[in-house]
Amino acid sequence: MPIVPIISYMNDTITIQVKKTTRNALLALGRMYEDYNSVIEGLIREHNSKVLVEHSCNFVAERKDEFVSIDEL
Asked: Where are the domains of the chain?
């Protein structure tokens, strides 16, 4: 899963098509007066955080023998 960068330009917007069910899900995820863009950016940040944690766990698991246990210190 690639990490998606968030690039924001003032007043640079596009229109994307979403199903009504997707729109309703975005509405449910957002807070009062929060726009769709803010909700989507939050979802991207959450996704990127999960990917980073997953990558970190895999990194440590693959190199287990390179780390020293706290119990051994």
From this structure: 20-72
Determine if the pTM surpasses 0.90. Answer: no
For the packed helices 36-62 and 20-29, what is the interaxial angle rounded to 10 degrees? 80
pLDDT in tens, 8-44: 555 677 888 889 999 899 889 988 888 888 899 999 9
At 23, give phi and psi (nearest 5°): -60, -45
- What distance in Å separates the CA atoms of residue 47 and residue 2, rounded to the nearest whole number? 10
Q: Which long-range contacts (CB under 8 A, 24 or more apart) does 6-15 make?
A: 6/41, 6/44, 6/45, 8/41, 13/37
Q: Measure the CA–CA gap between 57 and 3, rounded to whole angstroms.
A: 16
Over its C-alpha atoms, the chain yields an Rg (Å, rounded) of: 19
53, 51, 23, 54: which is closest to 39 by C-alpha? 23
